[in-house]
Amino acid sequence: MSGGRTLDGEVVVSGAKNAALPMLAASILSAEPLRLGNLPDLRDVHTMLSLLRILGAVVDGAAPGSASVRLAEPKSFSAPYDLVRTMRASILVLGPLLGRFGRADVSLPGGCAIGARPIDMHVNALRSMGAEVEMRGGYISARSNGLRGARIDLPLPTVTGTENIMMAAVLADGDTVIENAAREPEVRDLADCLNAMGARISGAGESRIRISGVGQLRGAEREILPDRIEAGTYLVAGAMTGGRVALRFRGELALGEVLAALRNAGADVRRGEGFVELDMGGRRPRSVNVATAPWPGFPTDMQAQFTALNAIASGHALVRENVFEQRFMHVAELRRLGADIEPLGREVLIRGVRRLQGAPVMATDLRASASLVLAALVAEGETVIHRVYHMDRGYERIEDKFSGLGAEIRRV
Ligand code: UD1
After folding, report:
1. Dist CA 208 CA 175 (whole Å)
2. What one-character DSSP code corresponds to residue 188?
3. Which of 266, 20, 264, 257 is nearest to 160 (CA)?
4. Ligand 1 atom having least distance to the Cα of 301
5. Residue whose CA is at the smallest distance from ligand 1 atom 30
6. What global pTM score does this model have?
7. pLDDT the model gives residue 90
8. Ligand 1: which of 165, 323, 366, 367 to mutate, most ligand atoms within 8 Å of CB?
9. Cα 392–359–409 angle (5° rounding)?
10. Which of 8, 24, 164, 394 is most solvent-facing, going by the fewest CB within 10 Å?
11. Ligand 1 atom index nearest CA of 22
């Protein structure tokens, strides 16, 4: 990539990875087809489809665009290490497999290298619903003769944990109440999908979710929400280059705190039905302090991108990571490009510099890679980013979209 261009143009936002993955997993819960539209063409989506095929699902019309998934006869109840290690979200098949078939073996997850990321809350919740869960040979092995509803108090509002519990509870006997549930828009989207399949879930999007078990679920057809993290990443690109970026999308784009942070950085942002437009008018962004938190707070998946923005902004900023430990792997790479960033435990202090310089850098996880692309857009000379496969897990056609905005970017 070569930096220095002012971005100007339009981007069509893809369907949300983090809504697509749990909904694909939800297809396990019914013998009838679940048809999903606005499905993004991403490596993680293909990994989930491969996993569903291993379990016995028939997939028609895979990504891009849409897919119909039907699991009539299970062939296996096991999510193997080879798939799970490339995508942590494979854990999402645990709840639905256990809920419908009473058994699931899921390899312990790998995925993004961002801290320890345990799955104890998933396991404890399933145990309190009556499942027997053991760790054996690197696998989580869960069995039940019929789950029963339970009251589950989550110590932290885990996103995939909340989704797993909802999917386990929809076919359980009686009512399940999740306290301190994750409130992310993708959790609500999954609940809407499950309700369209015949589930009885109320309160999704709030801290207390109630699920009343039903006998079985039917097929359904759903459109996946636009990806708020992908959208936010392109808006930050517009802001960093002093440019103008217009986003187009179908459905509701929940940008929340990210829009507020962009306005604090000095961007003019307009929004309406199906579009958001950011105009920086050639200005250099101002530093913005951000501190990540569960929804409705500032998303941890946008932290690396705002670290990159602050690296070239005027002034000083503190960026604090409250959701994950060790999610500052991009900092060392941004420093190679000339950023002035001082690590302070769970925070980094960033002193904005006027210019970054191109250099070879290494992507370490999905959002860290995005921050390196953003930095390369404003770096003098050429930046070569290694291990970009991390990016393909979560950004659809990223080179095309950035090229369309006028960036000099190509895959080598
Ligand atoms: C999901 C998102 C990910 C996002 C994250 C936080 C998907 C597929 N991934 O990940 O993009 O960065 O939410 O918004 O939707 N924790 C435990 N024990 C558990 C589970 C979680 O201690 O059993 C901790 C984690 O280490 C972390 C916090 O809870 O500190 C929140 O993590 P969680 O919400 O579970 O993240 P994911 O669902 O894995």
Report:
1. 13
2. H
3. 20
4. 12
5. 324
6. 0.96
7. 94
8. 323
9. 45
10. 8
11. 8
Sign of the torsion angle spanned by Cα atoms 281, 286, 292, 293? negative
| Beta carbons within 8 Å of 137's beta carbon, 6+ residues apart | none
Tokens of 319: 């960026």
How would residue 114 be classed by pLDDT, with cut points 50, 70 and 90? Answer: very low
Cα separation of 380 and 386, whole Å? Answer: 18
Higher pLDDT, 109 or 373: 373
Any idea which residues carry the catalytic annotation?
A: 112
What are the structure tokens assigned to 150, written together? 């339970």
pLDDT digits (tens, 9 = 90+) for 174-223: 999 999 999 999 999 999 999 999 999 999 999 999 999 999 999 999 99
Distance CA 132, CA 123 (A): 9
How far does the centroid of ligand 1 lie from the alpha carbon of residue 134, in Å?
21
Q: How far does residue 379's CA lie from ligand 1's centre (Å)?
A: 32
C-alpha distances (whole Å) from 56 to each of 17, 31, 50 are 22, 11, 10
Cβ atoms within 10 Å, residue 114: 22
Gap between the Cα atoms of 333 and 379, Å rounded? 13
Rounded to whole angstroms, the Cα distance separating 372 from 362 reads 8
10 Å Cβ neighbour count for 137? Answer: 9
Q: Phi and psi dihedrals of 39, rounded to 5?
A: -80, 125
Vertex 14 angle, CA 8 and 17, to 5°? 130
Which residues, 6 or more positions from 128, have their beta carbon under 8 angstroms from its beta carbon?
150, 151, 152
How many beta carbons lie within 10 A of that of residue 344, not counting itself? Answer: 11
Strand ranges across the sheet with 8-12: 8-12, 244-248, 275-279, 268-272
Span from the CA of 159 to the centroid of ligand 1 (angstroms): 5
pLDDT (tens digit per residue) in 67-82: 999 999 999 999 999 9
Report which protein residue has its CA nearest ligand 1's atom 33.
Answer: 158
> How far apart are the CA of 357 and the centre of ligand 1, in A?
34
Q: How many CB atoms lie within 10 A of CB 222?
A: 21
CA nearest to 205, candidates 248, 247, 249, 256: 256
